[in-house]
Write a structure and sequence with these properties.
With 132 residues, the chain is mostly helical. It has one domain. Helix content is 73%, strand content 0%. The chain has 5 helices and no strands.
């Protein structure tokens, strides 16, 4: 179980195969997107003049937090944990954007995760706060 599966916990047994397959595909695509967008941010930050070590450490922090979101919920399936993970990911992203605006690319991943993990009401609030 990982963060992608948290909103899918309530599925009944007749939907179990479909839910598991959907969650697996979403999980793989989420990791590919995180790696791609972070790599774009790191490369563009280096080209923009950010020291290589700083850009690499920033990219590593983004990917480490993202990966932790896949590994940690095995023991903690609480939606509250998913929300706090998302808040932490947002803070890391804000620091990354303060280091280099080129990490703005990761916002797309963050926006998709917020739409998936939060209810509609809280998703709108997050989006409003996020784009201010």
């Amino acid at each position: 179980m990982n963060l992608v599966e948290v909103p899918l916990i309530g599925a009944d047994s007749s939907q179990l195969f479909s839910v598991k397959l959907t969650a697996r595909v979403m999980n793989i695509c989420q990791h590919l997107m995180a790696a791609l967008l972070t790599t774009v941010g790191v490369i563009r930050a280096i080209v923009d003049g950010v020291p290589i070590q700083v850009a690499l450490i920033t990219g590593f922090a983004i990917l480490a937090w993202h990966t932790a979101g896949s590994l940690l919920p095995v023991k903690n399936r609480s939606p509250r944990f998913a929300i706090w993970w998302l808040v932490g990911f947002s803070v890391i992203w804000l620091v990354a954007v303060a280091i280099s605006a080129e990490f703005i690319w990761v916002a797309f991943l963050l926006w998709l995760l917020a739409g998936h993990l939060l209810s509609v009401k809280w998703g709108y609030c997050f989006q409003f706060w996020f784009w201010q």
